[in-house]
Write a structure and sequence with these properties.
- The structure holds two protein chains of two kinds.
- By secondary structure, chain A is an alpha+beta fold.
- In chain A, 30% of the residues lie in helices and 34% in strands.
- Chain A has helices at 18-28, 45-56; strands at 7-11, 35-40, 59-66, 69-75.
- In chain A, strand 3 (59-66) and strand 4 form a beta hairpin.
- Chain B is of the alpha/beta class.
- Chain B is built from nine helices and five strands.
- Chain B has helices at residues 3-6, 14-35, 49-64, 106-109, 117-122, 126-140, 146-155, 164-170, 187-196; strands at 39-44, 68-73, 159-163, 183-185, 199-202.
- Chain B has a five-stranded parallel beta sheet, with helices on both faces.
- In chain B, helix 3 (49-64) packs parallel to helix 7.
- The chains are: A alpha+beta, B alpha/beta.
- Chain A binds chain B through residues 13-18, 20-21, 23-25, 41-42, 51-52, 55-56, and chain B through 57, 60-61, 64-66, 141-144, 148-149, 152, 155-156.
Amino acid sequence: MNAPATHSLDARGLNCPLPILRTKKALSELGTGDTLAVISTDPGSLKDMQAFCKQTGHDLISSSSNQGEFEFLIRKA
Amino acid sequence: MGVADKITPPTLDQSQFDQWFDQRFEARMAEREAAHVPSLSIIATKGTLDWAYPPFILASTAGALGWDVSVFFTFYGLELLKKDLHLEISPLGNPSMPMKMPFGPQWLKDINWKVPNVVMAGVPGFEKMATGLMAQTVKNKGVATIDELRSACIEADAKLFACQMTVDLFGYSQDEFIPEIEGWIGAASFLPTAQKSDVCLFI
């Protein structure tokens, strides 16, 4: 199991591209190595979050989907 | 320049040299790729509520990905830079636009209202109503408002340029527009930016 995230973001009910924009904003307020747990309901966010992390260099530690909700754990680079 | 760039020992034969060159070339290209900041240029020419979404969604998302973003607003696109946004939608002459109720029971929401053009054109306030319904749908679905996306673009340091010629043409005054506008320019100033960008879109 991963250690619990140091910060969290609730992006439920938001649609593309808001989950990504909010995630970027939340990450900008964190320090390197901090972790952010994001929860969303936008099915597009599953692929978008991977692309976002790949492009920005942040570490997508895990992503999972559970009954229409998507959870991501990201470590800030 | 590292030492490896300079030495080509005389003992290297042609095939060894080729191999050395290919490896160096690949490594250099990879470094270059890694250091490259992608850039996006958009020319935004439409000023209705529906057409306001693509430029702002793409610009704000590219900004979130760390890209360099420039948007040139020209003709009706200039409406998107007004301090007070009063964007409307017109279903008239737009057969692809689904017309659905954003409220009521599910069976009612599922109906796609095929309204004849003559009705859309003839009923006073039809566009106001369609605009209201779209605004409600946007809210219901958790889609961002144009204001929100525009702020996200500004926050991400997207450069928003306004077309000076359009301002003159339509008789606007510069103080009707948001102060974050990067510059009042013409096509000749924007094209060199567009030329150097990795992605250039006309919307």
